[in-house]
Design brief:
With 218 residues, this protein is α/β, with parallel strands linked by helices. It has two domains: 2-45; 54-217, SPOUT methyltransferase, trefoil knot domain (Alpha/beta knot), CATH 3.40.1280. It is built from six helices and ten strands. The chain has helices at 2-5, 64-75, 97-114, 129-136, 167-175, 190-206; strands at 12-16, 21-29, 35-39, 44-45, 54-58, 79-84, 122-128, 140-148, 156-159, 179-181. The protein has a six-stranded parallel sheet, with helices on both faces. Strands 1, 2, 3 and 4 form a four-stranded antiparallel sheet that branches. A hairpin with a 4-residue loop joins strand 1 (12-16) and strand 2 (21-29). Helix 2 (64-75) packs parallel to helix 3 and helix 2 packs parallel to helix 6. The longest helix is centred in the middle third of the chain and has 18 residues, at 97-114. It is globular, with a radius of gyration of 20 Å. The chain starts with a helix and ends in a 12-residue tail after the last helix. 31% of the residues are buried.
Length: 218
């Protein structure tokens, strides 16, 4: 940590448990090259922002899943759900799934530290689209061209794979009350679309952007 943060003796540091509690400290040199943190104030607590934002996206090739998890964590998304869709190319394998899962947890933890988040995101193991749609029923969006703008009464966004949603998946989402969500006029890569959905919802929640007045948002 000392090398990464380039901490100097007496420098202020905030530590957190990843569950909303934090405490100001100061870095102090110990014996040898050891770095110690001394409490410099009382323990504080910050409640979670409301509503909780969830982004579910398809597993992706290579390091693209890790990249999306990292950026969604930095954006302040509360829950990240990995999907196995009909057109998902990457499938969980028994021999690698646990190792990959630990890697994703590490990526999320490091991203939370870098972005000074007080809450670690809930990172859910891969599920089928049916389960995700059921969880988002009546309060979610499914990313699809031609949809409407994001709204905070639907803080749960589902993003499909590069090949798009199947007709059966779209029909099921519609039966469960999920509305189509537009992420712009262009065609985004799956990981970019996931991050865009997370950023739009968290920006709405924080008041950085205003809700659309488009008729489709009513």
């Amino acid at each position: 940590m000392e090398r990464v943060l380039r901490l100097r003796d007496g420098e202020a540091v905030a530590v957190s448990d990843g569950a909303g509690s934090y405490r100001p400290c100061r870095a102090r040199r110990g014996a040898g090259r050891r770095l110690c943190l001394e409490p410099a104030g009382p323990v504080g607590f910050q409640p979670r922002s409301e509503p909780a934002v969830t982004v579910a996206f398809s597993l992706l090739k290579g390091e693209r899943t890790e990249w999306a998890v990292e950026k969604l964590t930095e954006a302040g998304v509360d829950e990240i759900l990995l999907l196995v869709c009909e057109r998902t190319v990457v499938r969980p394998s028994e021999d690698r799934s646990e190792r990959r899962w630990r890697r994703l947890e590490k990526v999320a933890r490091q991203a939370a530290m870098q972005s000074r988040r007080l809450y670690l995101p809930r990172l859910a193991r891969p599920v089928g689209v049916e389960e995700a749609i059921s969880r988002a029923a009546g309060r979610g969006f499914i990313a699809e061209p031609g949809g409407g703008p994001p709204r905070l009464d639907r803080p749960f966004a589902l993003v499909g794979p590069e090949g798009g949603w199947s007709s059966a998946e779209l029909a099921r989402a519609g039966r469960h009350g999920l509305e189509p969500l537009s992420l712009g006029a262009g065609v985004l890569r799956a990981e970019t679309a996931a991050v865009a959905a997370g950023l739009l919802l968290t920006a709405l929640r924080s008041g950085l952007v205003a809700a659309s007045t488009d008729d489709r948002s009513r």
